[in-house]
Each structure stands twice: as structure tokens, then as C-alpha cells.
């Protein structure tokens, strides 16, 4: 007969709560398959070695558990990185960010003056079917990607954005990176996503936008050269065919800017 006390119930409740929040975060970061795989392996390990007490298979699984973490890091390093990005960016930590950032200078807070020029430029390029890829940095630094292009370090300006992505511009094929209210660089090279769920009709810009959104917490905007459609990649997911209002709303949320009251 198994005796279950209050301490055991409390232990089970804590584990269940941790698994629930872990599931939510990994689902948001697009790494839910790893969660189910690891959870299934743990269940098999507990049943065989702890409950059924199968010595041979239990010993094998015990040895594998010893090196399992290293194997997971090697095989799923991109997915684990995406999960850690989601963990650090999750809404439950916003109060901590406010606590540590309350003494930052007022200029650190982004304003709608930085959002609207980007939206207007994307709307204009959408009408003229000018291809564009704009990446807005958030918490994670993007210096390594900035160095792959040409450093600009200019104020956010609608005309400047349009000129950079003009078809005859030498920088129009790469990505523009915006950080802390400044256009840091253009013509930048981004990691390309190999996600099989991306439709084949979408090109390299979309896969690059999704790649940077999977590798970092950045917010990426794509204007299609073929259709003029506006897409957004954020938190490892790609949203296509957005209106200007949708783009403004999502950009405000990503940049922690309050939307204009209607």
C-alpha cells in the first residue's frame, strides 16, 4: 500500500504547475515537440525503472539520462535558444524589467514617433511592390548581424527607409536593423529558417525574417516584392497578409508603445 501524505501532494502540485508553465512557454516559442518528446521519455524511464523495476532497460535509460542533457543541447540548440528567448521575454517577467529599468533615461522609452515612420514606409513600399526586410531589435543585441552589413546609425525616417530599399539601391537586398530608435545598419545578412511549414510561395526574405525571429527576440517585417503583402515574424512565428493597422498594432506591442486612443 502506498502512503501519500501532504508533502507528496504538495510535491506533485509543484511539478504539475512547473510542467504546465513550461508547456505554455515552449508552445509560444515553437518548441513544443521537444517538450512532448522529453516528457514521453521521462514517463517511459519512470515506468520501466521505478515502477516495473526492469533492470536491463532501466540501466540503459539511466545511462542515457546521464548524457541526455548534452545530447539535447547538441541536437536542438536552435530550438533551445528559441525557448530561452521566450522564457526571458515572457510577460510574467515584465515587472522585473520595469524594476531594473526605472532609472534609465527618458530617451530609452520608445515612442510612437518611431513606429509611424516604419508603418508609413511599409505602406508606401507595399503599394509600389518594393521588397523590404526590416528588423527591430528588442532585448537581445544584434551587433553580429549589424556587422554583416553597412553601418548607418541614423534617425528613423520614412524616406530614408524607402531609399534604402529602392530597387536600384546597393543595400536593398539585405535587411535593415533598427535598435533604440536608430537605423543601425542596412544590407545585413540574417540566418535563414529551414522550417518546413513555411509555404513555398514565400521567398528568401520571409525565411530570413522567420530565421531571425527564431534565433532572437527581434521583430521582423517583410514587404513582398511580388505581391506587396506585408508579413511579420515574431517569437518564432510568421504572420502574412497584414493590413497597415495590424502592422501598427503588432509593432506597438513589440516595441512596448501605447497605442493611440481612439
If you had to describe this structure to a student in words, what would you say it looks like?
With about 260 residues, the protein is of the alpha+beta class. Helices cover about 50% and strands about 15% of the residues. The protein is built from ten helices and seven strands. The chain has helices at about 5-30, 30-50, 55-75, 75-90, 95-100, 110-125, 145, 160-165, 205-215, 245-255; strands at about 130-135, 150-155, 175-180, 180-190, 220-225, 230-235, 235-240. The protein has a seven-stranded mixed beta sheet. About 25% of the residues are buried. Mean pLDDT is about 80; it is low at about 100-110 and about 260.
Major sheet, described briefly? 7 strands, mixed
For the biggest β-sheet, the strand order reads: 2-4-3-1-5-6-7
Whole-angstrom Rg: 23 Å
Please give the count of helices.
10
Instruction: Return the average pLDDT rounded to an integer.
Output: 80
How many strands? Answer: 7
Percent in strands:
5-15%
Helix content range = 40-55%
Low-confidence stretches: 102-110, 258-262
**SSE pattern:** HHHHHHEHEHEEHEEEH
Query: Which structural class do the helices and strands define?
Result: alpha+beta
User: Which of globular, elongated, flat, extended, rod-shaped describes the shape?
Assistant: elongated
Distance from N terminus to C terminus (CA atoms, Å) equals: 65 Å
